Amino acid sequence: MLGQLEPGHNLTIRGLATEFNVSMTPIREATRRLAAEGALQLSNLGRISVPNLNKDRMQELFCLRSMLEPELASRAFPRVHSVLIERLETINNSIEQMIVQKNSEGYLKRDLEFHKTLYLRAQAPSMLALVETVWVQSGPNLKKQYQKNLRKLSTRNHHMILNALRIGNKDGFIKNIYQDVSI
Predict the structure, then answer these.
(1) Do residues 2 and 109 lie in contact, with contact meaning Cβ atoms separated by under 8 Å?
(2) What angle separates helix 125-148 from helix 104-119, to the nearest 10 degrees?
(3) 22, 38, 139, 155: which could form a disulfide with 1 (CB 3.0–4.6 Å)?
């Protein structure tokens, strides 16, 4: 989800078992589950790799985000309070620090934290699980994309989201969520 493994990176069950100091059985099960969620690819020969998604696949994932996340935001809106807005502002400030530090992994981590913190208020666990699956599938490729475009990264949409929350503008809030996840 955070792009800690590059697209195309190959893994082995034995290597992962050694890295995490566990037997190969839980690693085998975990890799099967991650493959079922689209986060890893398993070949017929048993090779494990991080998918390198093409432009069409990434557009599909952005499309899913643009359908699911505004709905989660809409459901969260009535449950937003000043403490949550302050928490989101703090997260957004750390996102800005990641941009200054040119830290694409930190940027992605904080950006997902911003969205998840907000969407937890929706109290829609099934929808959130679907969004997290999309995040898991797109994470390595998003990080790679962010690394290429670090100078273009911005928190403008987050500021617009926060402003809409402060004044209670639900339509503006949802519009800015949509713009943020459609990029």
Answers:
(1) yes
(2) 160
(3) 139
Tokens 């943020």 belong to 180
In the structure, what pLDDT confidence band is assigned to residue 105 with cuts at 50, 70 and 90? confident
Alpha-carbon distances of 34 from 50, 97, 109, rounded to whole Å? 10, 31, 19
Whole-number Å distance between alpha carbons of 15 and 104: 26
pTM of the model: 0.87
Smallest CA-to-CA distance from 128 within 118, 137, 119, 117 is with: 119
Give ∠ CA 147-139-86 in degrees, rounded to 5: 85
Residue-wise DSSP of 76-144:
HGGG--HHHHHHHHHHHHHHHHHHHTT-HHHHHHHHHHHHHHHHGGG--HHHHHHHHHHHHHHHHHHHH
Q: In 3-state terms, what secondary structure has residue 41?
A: strand
Q: DSSP secondary-structure letter at 168?
A: T
